[in-house]
Write a structure and sequence with these properties.
alpha+beta; 3 helices; two-stranded parallel sheet
Length: about 80
């Protein structure tokens, strides 16, 4: 899965967002659930926060599961 980072407009906190590139279907949400732990670790730069911006995913997968998947390989923010 491709990802890209840039220096952004400021030098503050670095935020990584997990977003879907296609319409949300049950099959796509299931793929997102399975891929979230790996995707959260893709950026080569150290991020301060990793978040999922898919409200459908949080509704269908469940907010607690989304947090669990993101934290599987990434530590909680300080």
């Amino acid at each position: 899965m491709d990802c890209g980072l840039n220096n952004g407009a400021g030098g503050g906190a670095r935020l990584g967002l997990i977003v879907l590139s296609t319409d949300e279907t049950p099959a796509m949400l299931a793929q997102m659930d399975a891929a979230m732990p790996v995707v959260a670790t893709l950026p080569s730069a150290e991020l301060d926060v990793v978040s999922s911006t898919c409200t459908s995913g949080r509704t269908v997968i469940g907010a607690a599961r989304v947090v669990e998947q993101i934290r599987r390989y990434t530590p909680p923010s300080q």
